Sequence to fold (189 residues):
Amino acid sequence: MSANIILELFTKFNYPAKRTHENIIPHLHLLTKQDQRRPLLKKNDIPTYIYFPVKSYGRMFYDLDDGSTITANYMKRGEIMGFDRHFLEQEPAPYQLEMLNGGQAYSLDYRTFNTLYQKDDLFKKSVGLIQADQLARSSWHNELLKLSNKERIPPMLVQYPDLIQLVTKEEIAGWMGMSLSTFKRNYKS
Fold:
């Protein structure tokens, strides 16, 4: 088990390693290849798990009226997928979650999460820090979209260095709020 990734994540947010070993790691489930071939969360389902990518990337996306999809976010190793108000409040989610090809992730169920959240003040504090970190990531992406098309690409490549090898340029262009032709013109491989 890649416990080090989970340890790093939670200790980064001030949750002690010993408690991570005792309270979180025993409850993690490594997704099988079969789990990863289907969406981890379908549109309008209530999210009952959060996911921790350990290999490759996860993707949050929305279905568009024309049958296509738009990516809202990519999550890499050391980040959390599906950790938002829909999970916390157990409400239907308007998006879908999936792992990219070859991706691996651990899952943690809502019941375990909620029990820890109710009983462990340190865990509750670390959850607050995780939420602040996710807000900062969202702000980073929103600020990125304010840059010129040419200026958006280098920060994305630093933050997600191997994403370009895992998804199409069209998907990245859509995620970055530009057309495919604009992305190709500004991206130097």
